[in-house]
Automatic annotation (TrEMBL):
PANTHER family attached to this UniProt entry: PROTEIN LZIC (PTHR16505)
Superkingdom of origin organism: Eukaryota
Annotated keywords: Coiled coil
Record lineage: Eukaryota, Viridiplantae, Chlorophyta, Mamiellophyceae, Mamiellales
Coiled coil regions in record: 6-33
Protein's UniProt name: Leucine zipper and CTNNBIP1 domain-containing protein
Length: 136
């Protein structure tokens, strides 16, 4: 049961973070009110998920540790600690290699002029922060 609960929690956070990332990617397709409403709904779902995780974090230590990691990622999303939902998703799913690859791609894109220096700096800081929190 603990494995199923962990898998469901991972799936739920991945779905919500993907939804946030997709919303950011398609921002031009929404008018401002529609964008803000959709983002608010997604953040409300994240907040609800955070509350559910708080209730679940009693019992099995392994499950508690894993749920605490997911809870931390959820809190980060809500507090906008990560401006880039894709980076937050990789952090929540504990994917340090994918984060390192994203870092290399970010640095390459800045060098090639595909990404502004400012955006590149923000992403690099987020990725390095995520890696540090994962102790990877």
């Amino acid at each position: 049961m603990a494995d199923a609960l962990r898998a469901n929690a991972r799936d739920q956070i991945a779905r919500l973070l993907t939804q946030l990332a997709d919303l950011e990617d398609a921002r031009e397709e929404f008018d401002d009110d529609e964008y803000e409403e959709t983002k608010a709904e997604t953040l409300a779902q994240l907040d609800s998920f955070k509350t559910s995780l708080a209730r679940m974090t009693t019992g099995d230590v392994t499950l508690t540790n894993e749920l605490e990691t997911i809870k931390s990622a959820t809190l980060a999303a809500i507090s906008a600690a990560f401006k880039t939902p894709e980076i937050l998703k990789l952090f929540a799913l504990k994917q340090p290699e994918a984060l390192r690859e994203r870092l290399r791609a970010c640095e390459r894109d800045v060098l090639l002029g595909k990404m502004s220096d400012a955006k590149g700096k923000i992403e690099r800081v987020e990725i390095l922060t995520a890696l540090k929190k994962l102790q990877a």
